[in-house]
Amino acid sequence: MPRRRRGSRVSALEDCREDAAAPAAAPPVPSATWASGAPQAAAAGEPVLLRGIFEIGRASCDVVLSERALRWRPIEPVRPEGESKLDLMCDEEFIELKNIFSVKLKRRCSIKQRDGTLLGITLFFCLKKERNKLKDAILDLINLSEDHCDVWFRQLKKILAGFSNRPQSLKILLNPQSHKKEATQVYYEKVEPLLKIAGIKTDVTITEYEGHALSLLKECELQEFDGVVCVGGDGSASEVVHALLLRAQKNAGVEAGRILTPVRAELPLGIIPAGSTNILAHSFHGVAHVVTATLHIIMGHIQPVDVCTFSTSSKLLRFGFSAMFGFGGRTLALAEKHRWMSPNQRRDFAIVKALAKLKPEDCDISFLPFNSSQDLQEKKAQGSPTSACTDQWQMVQGQFLNISIMAIPCLCSVAPRGLAPNTRLNNGSMDLIIVRNTSRPEFIKHLKRYGSVKNQFNFPFVETYTVEEVKVQPRNNMSKYNGEAGAEPQETASEDSFPWNIDGYLLEVASDVHVRLHPRLINLYGVSVEDMNDSKVTCNCL
Ligand SMILES: Nc1ncnc2c1ncn2[C@@H]1O[C@H](COP(=O)(O)OP(=O)(O)OP(=O)(O)O)[C@@H](O)[C@H]1O
């Protein structure tokens, strides 16, 4: 009896891209996660587009292309009558077509030959590696017939062309200074090769100074692009988000100073994590992983995400997803002053120093609780102002160690469940997390809980609210500033200043700040993520 070949014949791209022209080697790959679970459409009843014989992993296979999947099973010799065929049925493997991102003719090439002997077709596809992580892989379909391969190649190309949500041209903004200055290497070694395989055109700008991405996106021609990609950390990503939304307001003729209902960003944004913290990429993909982020872009996985505006009474300060005021702001200010340290050192140093100098802010915090009634949400979706006609504002006063206002969960290595685990990317609300003044040991206990499975909010000095709008007014600041002109945001932190950490961007505001949530204001490349309740923590400083 012939030996049955089991398991996947798919090889990861990283392992064998150079071998694309060699005959199908069959390196063993972990069990067929890419083909696990029933595909959306069962094989039976699906219209067959093509059927043919290819060698896959050195076994002759009967290959069927239908509208949703490519399936194959080894061709077995005819068995004596009465022998069970049940186990044969189990051998079918498949790839859903929605996971394929490129198809190429596979040729044996020597250096001198441009068009070597045809060997078959190579499919490039995306598979789910582990929770939230994606991986690129290849499948070789070997058949030496030019005509046979040509028919299949054309049909597969046609199917791929039908995925109209996938980008064909991208504007790339790369911060060469991110983290330990490895963003350029990350891009050219891991990202660009995949974009090339997917046939995506790119236009790369390497940013030269802080604010470069912002000034470039104000003016540059974006019509030819289907999306913008930022390669860097949270500071860079936050700058690009702000720039894209400012640009959208400008294009729509909205006065940037007084934006009540901003218009949506015109292009989707992809974030390739290459920075020190990567909270944004982590929150949008469930993991800070370069290949996962790249594959979400290539596959055109798009999710609308809520965005906040941060304003004084006279002007818009920033578009962003999350902010911390108090301990979180001071920690960032300290870390920014010590950029010469390594990223982990600087983070740990800043946390320890901010804890040593722990001091509460005397504030008034007013907030509009989230009203989930369908009526109100529909009004909001239509752009009608709602806060003006509701009289539900609440106020808390006192001394606070930290105030977090977060429209996204803010997943990161030190808080794998998120700094705001109860909010979602586009649930139309923000989490307001208030930590009242308490002793240093109690505050540290609270911080430590972010890295454990225990509830970090289960302390008498912590309050959480689900809100739509928040106003934060530092009290000892009220006489000095009236929140009007002159209350310009500063760039450097001083002892008496009020640093805000907005998505890792340091902003000093000498007045009250009004935070408003705008549902689904920007499209991000990514998908909704699985919960990360049992992930490991990587902060040792507490
Ligand atoms: N060429 C450059 N030189 C100096 N700064 C730059 C340059 N290009 C961009 N920047 C700025 O560097 C800041 C920080 O970059 P980024 O966020 O990418 O890296 P990071 O600080 O290592 O990561 P994280 O913000 O996740 O901690 C951003 O605010 C960005 O505007």
UniProtKB/TrEMBL annotation:
MF terms per GO, please? lipid kinase activity
What GO CC terms are in its UniProt record?
membrane
Question: Which residues lie within the region annotated Disordered?
Answer: 1-35
Any one GO biological process: sphingolipid metabolic process
Per UniProt, residues of the DAGKc domain are 165-314
Q: Which domain of life is it from?
A: Eukaryota
Q: Which Pfam families match?
A: CERK_C, DAGK_cat, PH_CERK
Q: What is this protein called?
A: Ceramide kinase-like protein isoform X2
